[in-house]
TrEMBL record:
In the C-terminal section; belongs to the class-I pyridoxal-phosphate-dependent aminotransferase family. This is PLP-dependent aminotransferase family protein. InterPro entries: Aminotransferase_I/II_large, HTH_trans_reg/aminotransferase, PyrdxlP-dep_Trfase, PyrdxlP-dep_Trfase_major, PyrdxlP-dep_Trfase_small, Tscrpt_reg_HTH_GntR, WH-like_DNA-bd_sf, WH_DNA-bd_sf. Keywords: Aminotransferase, DNA-binding, Pyridoxal phosphate, Transcription, Transcription regulation, Transferase. SMART domains: HTH_GNTR. The keyword Transcription applies. Pfam families: Aminotran_1_2, GntR. Transmembrane segments: none annotated. The lineage of its organism: Bacteria, Bacillati, Bacillota, Bacilli, Bacillales. Coiled coil: none annotated. GO terms for molecular function: transaminase activity. Its cofactor is pyridoxal 5'-phosphate.
Length: 443
């Protein structure tokens, strides 16, 4: 009766809906006690759908005859276009290694101490100054050092999302975030992405109707498409978040890696009302092995996230926080970023050139103005999960589109990362993929 009033539908409709849910095994009614969700059915569904978007790395085996299976796995991939890691040769590993040695000889106590749960104070201060250069003003009290932004997403999810809570994500989106929200039992709703990022025109209705707890977005050099959200859309999302009282996660792994002009202001810097939780990972620009990122939030939201961090690991390792500090605070950091942009632009241009020359005309993409990836759209009948099997035979990998969709999968896309392989490997890998595409289209 309550539900029929709330939803504005007749009692008969509500009863029928309950009957159908019970028939399909999702709920069970116990007379005198009430109606309960059947756990086993939920678990069965989860199992059927798979638990991780990284399943694509394993799932190719489903398509192979068992006889070929072992052989397939003996072939090591040589050309990883699936990985949006940075080529280690473009990162300041040597310098960081020296810094670790120096720090340990000068201050071996680092190993025998707990750091602050919130993160090393000097690093937080350094990050404030770093963010200020990107026109994002915040204070050390509102910064939490995390073990990468992956942990930031997880802390937010475990703090603010419970089973059945609605989370809005872009489609496609970053697979690692899908896994986190799925793991919390969230109901994930999606908004498609175009060349200007999330389709905000579709977001308002969705939010009015389903009242999400969280909107997760990668507005700058979106993973996987590379799109950049213009300032107008960023402001619209903030308005929607305000009117629906939901949080926005702005995940920003690589806004420093721009190839033309600087990207628009971060959503966090435009946020007047404290709805945005900003994540800045350092894996794509400095040292993924250090596992460091920061989270910026305010008020009680920040306090709750700090408590979650304490419960999770009592703080990010002090050793790696101290190791990156001298680099971040020196001029070297800005020089390094400049070089990184130049090197990655050369690689992006190379990939685009090969695609223009060798890919079939049915394949389309738009030019990423920064970031690490090119997102290809193929004719709808081509399944990139299948194409990946062919690519693996040539010792090449890419990220199939299926990994990036939280709900309805689209299988006719793929992501090529140009950040990990050198120019020779990129040339070989992308040319081979173009040939495979040609063969798939001619089939
Ligand atoms: N968010 C996005 C959009 C990413 O692409 C990645 C890494 N691929 C992460 C978060 C996780 O990064 P980190 O290494 O900082 O945990």
């Amino acid at each position: 009766r309550e539900l029929s009033k709330q939803l504005g539908v007749s009692l008969v409709t509500v009863v029928k809906a309950y009957q159908k849910l019970e028939q399909e095994g999702f709920i069970t009614s116990v007379q005198g006690k009430g109606t309960f969700i059947r756990k086993t059915k939920m678990e069965e569904t989860e199992r059927k759908e798979g638990t991780s978007s990284y399943d694509w790395q394993l799932s190719v085996q489903d398509y192979l005859p068992r006889s070929q299976f072992a052989r397939f796995h003996q072939v090591p991939e040589k050309i990883h276009l699936s990985s949006s890691m940075i080529d280690p040769g473009l990162l300041p590993n040597r310098y960081l290694e020296q810094e670790i040695h120096r720090m340990l000889s000068e201050n071996p106590k680092v190993l025998s101490q707990y750091g602050e749960i919130q993160g090393d104070k000097a690093l937080r201060q350094a990050m404030i100054e770093y963010l200020q250069r990107m026109d994002l003003t915040t204070s050390p009290d509102n910064i939490l050092v995390t073990s990468g932004s992956q942990q930031g997403i997880d802390l937010i999810a475990r703090t603010f999302v419970g089973p059945g809570d609605v989370v809005v994500m872009e489609a496609p989106t970053y697979p690692g975030a899908i896994d986190v929200f799925r793991g919390r039992g969230a109901t994930i709703l999606t908004v498609p992405v175009d060349c200007d990022g999330m389709r905000v025109d579709l977001l308002q209705n969705l939010c009015d109707k389903y009242k999400p707890k969280i909107i997760y977005t990668v507005p700058t050099f979106h993973n996987p498409t590379g799109s950049v959200m213009p300032i107008k859309r960023r402001r619209q999302i903030l308005e929607i978040a305000k009117s629906t009282q939901c949080l926005v996660i702005e995940d920003d792994p690589c806004s420093e890696i721009y190839f033309e002009r600087k990207p628009p202001a971060s959503m966090k810097s435009l946020d007047q009302d404290g709805h945005v939780i900003y994540l800045k990972g350092l894996s794509k620009i400095l040292a993924p092995g250090c596992r460091i990122g920061i989270l910026a939030a305010s008020g009680s939201i920040f306090k709750r996230l700090l408590a979650a961090k304490a419960n999770t690991d009592l703080g990010t390792p002090l050793l790696t926080q101290k190791a990156i500090l001298p680099f971040i605070t020196s001029k070297r950091m800005m020089d390094h970023l400049k070089k990184l942009r130049t090197a990655l632009k050369i690689r992006r241009d190379l990939v685009l050139e090969i695609l223009s020359e060798h890919s079939p005309e049915e394949v389309s993409w738009f030019i990423p103005k920064g970031g690490l990836n090119v997102w290809l759209t193929l004719p709808s009948w081509i399944n990139t999960d299948h194409l990946l099997i062919e690519a693996k035979k040539e010792q090449i990998t890419f990220l199939p589109g299926s990994a990036c969709y939280p709900t309805e999968q689209e299988n006719h896309h793929l992501r090529l990362s140009f950040s990990y392989m050198n120019e020779q490997q990129l040339t070989q890998g992308v040319t081979t993929i173009c040939n495979l595409l040609q063969s798939a289209i001619e089939l």
